[in-house]
Amino acid sequence: MHLLPRVLGAITAAYSVAIVVRPEVLARPCGLTGPDDRAAPDVRTLIGGIGVRDIAIGTAMVLAPRGPALRTAVAARVLSDAADAAVFGLRLPARDRRPRIVGFALTWAALCALSGRWAG
Question: What is the total count of domains within the chain?
Protein backbone atom coordinates (compact mmCIF):
# COMPACT_ATOMS: atom_id res chain seq x y z
CA MET A 1 0.00 0.00 0.00
CA HIS A 2 3.00 2.31 0.29
CA LEU A 3 2.63 2.92 -3.46
CA LEU A 4 -0.96 4.14 -3.18
CA PRO A 5 -0.12 7.88 -3.11
CA ARG A 6 2.10 7.37 -6.17
CA VAL A 7 -0.54 5.42 -8.08
CA LEU A 8 -3.26 7.96 -7.27
CA GLY A 9 -0.90 10.76 -8.31
CA ALA A 10 -0.19 9.05 -11.63
CA ILE A 11 -3.92 8.55 -12.28
CA THR A 12 -4.57 12.17 -11.36
CA ALA A 13 -1.88 13.43 -13.73
CA ALA A 14 -3.03 11.19 -16.60
CA TYR A 15 -6.69 12.18 -16.23
CA SER A 16 -5.63 15.82 -16.02
CA VAL A 17 -3.67 15.60 -19.26
CA ALA A 18 -6.82 14.15 -20.83
CA ILE A 19 -8.99 17.10 -19.71
CA VAL A 20 -6.41 19.63 -20.89
CA VAL A 21 -6.27 18.00 -24.31
CA ARG A 22 -10.02 17.34 -24.51
CA PRO A 23 -11.98 19.46 -22.00
CA GLU A 24 -15.21 17.68 -22.88
CA VAL A 25 -13.96 14.70 -20.84
CA LEU A 26 -14.83 16.78 -17.76
CA ALA A 27 -17.36 19.19 -19.26
CA ARG A 28 -19.74 16.49 -20.52
CA PRO A 29 -20.42 14.76 -17.16
CA CYS A 30 -20.78 18.19 -15.54
CA GLY A 31 -23.39 19.26 -18.09
CA LEU A 32 -21.14 22.05 -19.38
CA THR A 33 -21.33 21.25 -23.09
CA GLY A 34 -23.58 22.82 -25.66
CA PRO A 35 -25.98 21.21 -28.12
CA ASP A 36 -23.00 20.29 -30.29
CA ASP A 37 -21.54 18.32 -27.32
CA ARG A 38 -18.57 20.70 -27.14
CA ALA A 39 -17.46 22.95 -24.32
CA ALA A 40 -17.60 26.69 -24.96
CA PRO A 41 -14.25 28.54 -25.10
CA ASP A 42 -14.63 29.97 -21.58
CA VAL A 43 -15.41 26.52 -20.17
CA ARG A 44 -12.44 25.07 -22.05
CA THR A 45 -10.20 27.73 -20.49
CA LEU A 46 -11.35 27.01 -16.94
CA ILE A 47 -11.08 23.25 -17.38
CA GLY A 48 -7.59 23.76 -18.78
CA GLY A 49 -6.66 25.64 -15.61
CA ILE A 50 -8.03 22.87 -13.43
CA GLY A 51 -6.17 20.32 -15.54
CA VAL A 52 -2.81 22.07 -15.29
CA ARG A 53 -3.26 22.46 -11.52
CA ASP A 54 -3.98 18.76 -11.21
CA ILE A 55 -1.11 17.73 -13.48
CA ALA A 56 1.21 19.59 -11.12
CA ILE A 57 -0.30 18.03 -8.00
CA GLY A 58 -0.42 14.53 -9.48
CA THR A 59 3.17 14.79 -10.66
CA ALA A 60 4.22 15.98 -7.20
CA MET A 61 2.50 12.94 -5.67
CA VAL A 62 4.51 10.69 -7.99
CA LEU A 63 7.89 12.38 -7.59
CA ALA A 64 7.98 13.94 -4.12
CA PRO A 65 10.19 12.17 -1.58
CA ARG A 66 8.36 10.39 1.22
CA GLY A 67 7.76 12.50 4.27
CA PRO A 68 6.71 16.14 4.45
CA ALA A 69 6.94 16.77 0.69
CA LEU A 70 4.70 13.83 -0.23
CA ARG A 71 2.30 14.56 2.63
CA THR A 72 2.02 18.14 1.35
CA ALA A 73 1.31 16.96 -2.20
CA VAL A 74 -1.36 14.55 -0.94
CA ALA A 75 -2.89 17.32 1.19
CA ALA A 76 -3.00 19.61 -1.86
CA ARG A 77 -4.83 16.88 -3.79
CA VAL A 78 -7.35 16.33 -0.98
CA LEU A 79 -8.00 20.05 -0.54
CA SER A 80 -8.34 20.60 -4.29
CA ASP A 81 -10.87 17.79 -4.60
CA ALA A 82 -12.81 19.04 -1.58
CA ALA A 83 -12.86 22.56 -3.05
CA ASP A 84 -13.98 21.19 -6.42
CA ALA A 85 -16.78 19.30 -4.68
CA ALA A 86 -17.93 22.47 -2.93
CA VAL A 87 -17.78 24.69 -6.01
CA PHE A 88 -19.30 22.19 -8.44
CA GLY A 89 -21.84 21.12 -5.84
CA LEU A 90 -23.06 24.66 -5.37
CA ARG A 91 -22.52 26.16 -8.81
CA LEU A 92 -23.01 23.65 -11.62
CA PRO A 93 -25.87 24.95 -13.76
CA ALA A 94 -27.18 21.40 -14.28
CA ARG A 95 -28.43 20.74 -10.74
CA ASP A 96 -29.17 17.11 -11.54
CA ARG A 97 -25.44 16.56 -12.24
CA ARG A 98 -24.27 17.98 -8.92
CA PRO A 99 -24.65 14.88 -6.70
CA ARG A 100 -22.68 12.60 -9.05
CA ILE A 101 -19.87 15.12 -9.57
CA VAL A 102 -19.66 15.90 -5.84
CA GLY A 103 -19.65 12.19 -5.04
CA PHE A 104 -16.82 11.56 -7.47
CA ALA A 105 -14.72 14.46 -6.13
CA LEU A 106 -15.29 13.48 -2.50
CA THR A 107 -14.53 9.83 -3.20
CA TRP A 108 -11.25 10.79 -4.84
CA ALA A 109 -10.46 13.15 -1.94
CA ALA A 110 -11.12 10.32 0.53
CA LEU A 111 -8.91 7.86 -1.39
CA CYS A 112 -6.11 10.38 -1.52
CA ALA A 113 -6.54 11.20 2.18
CA LEU A 114 -6.32 7.49 2.97
CA SER A 115 -3.17 7.23 0.84
CA GLY A 116 -1.59 9.87 3.06
CA ARG A 117 -1.13 7.11 5.61
CA TRP A 118 1.66 5.76 3.41
CA ALA A 119 3.16 9.13 2.49
CA GLY A 120 5.85 8.75 5.15
Answer: 1
